[in-house]
Specification:
heterodimer; A: 156 residues; mainly beta; OB fold (Dihydrolipoamide Acetyltransferase, E2P); 2 domains; 5-stranded antiparallel beta sheet; 4-stranded antiparallel beta sheet; 11% helix; elongated; B: 458 residues; alpha+beta; Rossmann fold; Dna Ligase, domain 1; D-amino Acid Aminotransferase, Chain A, domain 1; 3 domains; 5-stranded parallel beta sheet
């Protein structure tokens, strides 16, 4: 049993139209958790690990952000860029603490944000090890494909 | 609702052309571009460009959710899909509806009705539009029985196909079962729909299509026809309006049939009804309807003086159809050559690369729709159309002369083009007479190959 991106979008829509604030779905080997945010938007709770490749193979959910080498001047810091166009969120839900702040230590699989594409919440991971030096992606703003979300000084 | 900001979900010359009309209408444009097109001419002309994904179309121009997300994200009221890519995808029209974004095109239901070629045939029948003998096949016996009735040669066509894709010609009945099996397998893989149907093959047919505009409430006007018989493997190369060597009676019947078909669907926006014309017998058959702006729309704009993109935007924005049939007058003759980055000496293989230098023709009666300027890149990921060169004068002989001259002054350096091939077509006696059938280019190429063989040094 696997869910397509369309299935997840449909489930999110059902929740949105319902009177419930939270939905938890468990199918063999797959766990999907959706929670209504304070703004009424439905978003996947990234703290609950749904295997993203199974959930949305076509929307490439949780594709690791690509770390691009930075131009000189930033002492070897590298860009973590948006793997697709969508609305960028720095925190799992409005009012919550951001996933990362300048100074945060990140590993390859550390979640650094969420990009929403048509109500589908895709977690974005650092894709490298190091220390966050700067955050450029604005919370709730449209980010383009390839846009720099944050910069990371790679661990030695 | 008036459209104030429009997202263009396309690239190349058509993106450039849509931006031009939007400027005249005072509409802000946002171009949704792939990474490969960020430096393109339309990206610089648009008021804003957003990068929607990598070069591969499947990861950018073909992503329905991303396109609508981009429109919502930039605050666009509407999406213009251009042609190709998602332009006839009902899923995009539907998602637009769900998010309150105007889709500049027909309704999702209309896209579905004309996208399924069997359904379109059914609608044509109900609209009293002539069809080539044929129909759906359920089994091999069924097919043989129908084929016996239709006669050979015939075509096996994919229900989900169109534009020449998903067709097989069968010349002998004993080839039919294998052709059907192959066509069904290919159609299943290409269109996700393995259904096929049979249709009589008209050996000497001309491709004539009628441009229509509908208000979505059942009122439809036509803007005359275009003859697109100069095709290579179903890809149009030269288009002209009016169709030459056609009786006024047949021309009129084509216009009426197209209007009946579109009116039956209460069609909304700009569309084209394609016919196969057997001029010798005075007969014609419905082929399909294209529910989008077409590549060759400038020839119609030239003879009618009507901006079709502006009409599309007006209808989509709720202004309705501002034209009456009596308002539409057609003057003179217009002819268009599609300049492609492809190499006729290598079986028309695409020739991507960088255009180091280019000179397009200009002057009275000449229009060039292009996104190519010196330094432009021609990415290998998309179709190879570089420009459309259109000539318009009061009569066909003068238009032909003007277009020949325009092609002779055109220069494209850095990529191979089919410019010389166009010159050969325009110089051909049969083409000059007018009214060639769709086998014209194949015969021309065969003659050239034979001539090259006869004189190896020529």
């Amino acid at each position: 049993m696997s869910l397509t991106a369309k299935d997840v979008a449909e489930i999110a829509r059902l929740l949105e139209e319902s009177a419930f604030d939270e939905l938890s779905l468990e199918l063999d080997g797959l766990k999907l958790s959706l929670r209504r945010g304070a703004d009424g938007d439905v978003r996947a709770d990234p703290a609950v690990e749904a295997p993203p490749a199974t959930v949305a193979p076509r929307a490439a959910a949780a594709a690791p952000a690509t770390a691009a080498p930075r131009a000189a001047g930033d002492a070897g810091a590298r860009d973590v860029t948006a793997p697709f166009l969508g609305t960028f969120y720095r925190a799992p839900k409005p009012g919550a603490a951001p996933f990362v702040e300048p100074g945060s230590q990140v590993e390859d699989d550390t979640i650094i944000g969420i990009i929403e594409v048509m109500k589908l919440m895709n977690t974005v991971r650092a894709g490298m090890r190091g220390t966050v030096t700067e955050i450029l992606g604005r919370d709730g703003a449209l980010v383009e494909y390839g846009e720099t979300l944050l910069r990371v000084a790679p661990a030695a | 609702m008036a459209i104030r900001r429009l997202l263009i979900a396309n690239r190349g010359e058509i993106a450039t052309r849509i931006i031009r009309t939007c400027r005249q209408l005072g509409i802000e444009t946002v171009l949704a571009a792939s990474e490969a097109d960020r430096q393109s001419l339309p990206a610089r002309l648009a008021d804003r460009t957003v990068c929607i994904g990598p070069a591969r179309a499947a990861d950018s121009y073909l992503k329905v959710g991303t396109i609508v997300q981009a429109a919502v994200g930039v605050g666009a009221d509407a999406i213009h899909p251009g042609y190709g890519f998602l332009s006839e995808r009902a899923a995009l029209a539907r998602l637009c509806e769900e998010h309150g974004v105007i889709f500049v095109g027909p309704t999702a239901a209309q896209l579905e009705a004309v996208g399924d070629k069997l359904r379109a045939r059914g609608e044509a029948e109900l609209a009293d539009v002539p069809l080539a003998p044929g129909g759906p096949v359920a089994s091999a016996e069924d097919a043989l029985r129908m084929a016996g009735h239709i006669g050979v040669p015939l075509l096996v066509k994919a229900v989900g196909g169109g534009g020449g894709r998903g067709m097989k010609r069968v010349d002998r009945l004993d080839e039919l079962p294998a052709a059907i099996a192959l066509a069904a397998a290919e159609a299943g893989a290409a269109f996700g729909d393995a259904r096929v149907y049979l249709e009589r093959y008209v050996t000497r047919g001309r491709h004539v299509e009628v441009q229509v505009l509908g208000d979505g409430e059942g009122r439809v006007v036509h803007l005359g026809e275009r003859d697109c018989s100069v095709q290579r493997r179903y890809q149009k190369l030269v288009e002209e309006s009016p169709a030459p060597e056609l009786s006024d009676r047949l021309r009129h019947r084509l216009h009426e049939a197209a209007v009946r078909f579109a009116a039956r669907l209460a069609y909304r926006g700009a569309g084209t009804v394609e016919f196969l014309v057997d001029a010798e017998r005075g007969a014609f058959y419905f082929l399909e309807m294209n529910a989008r702006i077409q590549v060759e729309h400038p020839v119609t704009e030239a003879v009618t003086g009507i901006d079709l993109v502006a009409q599309q935007i007006a209808i989509a924005g709720g202004d309705g159809l501002r034209l009456e049939q009596a308002d539409i007058r057609r003057q003179g003759c217009a002819m268009e050559c599609r300049v492609n980055a492809e190499d006729p000496r290598r079986d028309f293989q695409p020739s991507p690369g960088r255009v180091s230098d280019v000179a397009w023709p200009s002057g009275p009666g000449i229009r060039v729709d292009t996104h190519i300027e010196p330094g432009s890149s021609v990415p290998p990921h998309y179709d190879s159309l570089l420009a459309k060169i259109v000539a318009h004068t009061p009569d066909r002989a003068a238009t032909l002369a003007l277009l020949r001259h325009a092609l002779a002054t055109t220069r494209v350096v850095g990529v191979a083009t089919n410019l010389d091939f166009h010159a050969t077509v325009l110089a051909d006696r049969e083409f000059e007479t007018g009214g060639v059938d769709t086998g014209f280019v194949a015969r021309l190429l065969a003659r050239r190959a034979a001539a090259a063989e006869a004189s190896p040094h020529g």
